[in-house]
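Progress report, Aim 2. The chain analyzed during this reporting quarter is listed below.
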Amino acid sequence: MNFNNKTVWITGASSGIGKELAVQFAKLGARVILSARNVEKLTEVKATLKGDGHLIIPLDLSAPEAVLTQVTDLLHTLPSIDILINNGGVSQRSLFLENDFNVYRQLMEVNYFGLIALTKAILPSMVARKNGSIVAISSVAGKVGSKFRTGYSGSKYAVVGFMDCLRAEVAEHNIHCLTICPGSIKTAIAHNSLNEQGVAQNKPEESIENGMAVSCAAEKMIQAIANKKDEVIVGQGLSGWAPTIKRFFPTLFNRLTAKTNYR
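Predicted structure tokens for the chain:
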């Protein structure tokens, strides 16, 4: 796929995977729409992008109904969206027995309902043109479970299921649906992960610090979009192999996760 002059909308574009995807797509000649809550950081990202025509549209995925209304009202003022990348999200590192119920609400609003709202707003225009790609950044945690991730993993499993159904529904309209499941990628996700009170834990995690470089991960993701894949795992080491191990050795995998005590 040639990305030159394509319009790519990326959520969670102020840092991490979203930021790197924006940088790489701009280098490939795409026009990028940057979304996140922090306008200052989005402005900084935009200033680094190659080319012209890039846009900033602030969105708060924790308010999905507002996102749906805002984007629906804005869409007629924007260029046709060729690729939507639902990347914005938040993780969690806390035990179910210790979690406030609101933690689960926060995770589902951002990771699942925010994605649904933006897709709901943009997909009809793609269907009308019989062209477009919907990309969802789920997680390896959306394929396998582990301790301290009940809320995060649950929301990411929901994303995988949603995308499987959506793919089947829009195939007749020539719409490409890709689910990307990253493993440990070296970003700030661990620092931003919610604790049992729903507040960012602000501390590192060894598996993330030693994870795949974000530039490498973004490159693999763009390649998957270009090749119109349905689902890909992007990760190295155990984080990349976990879904395969769980598939072929489920009992062993479940025993290992029960013994693992890392956040």
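The longest helix spans residues 101-129. The chain has ten helices and seven strands. These observations will guide the mutagenesis work planned for the next reporting period.
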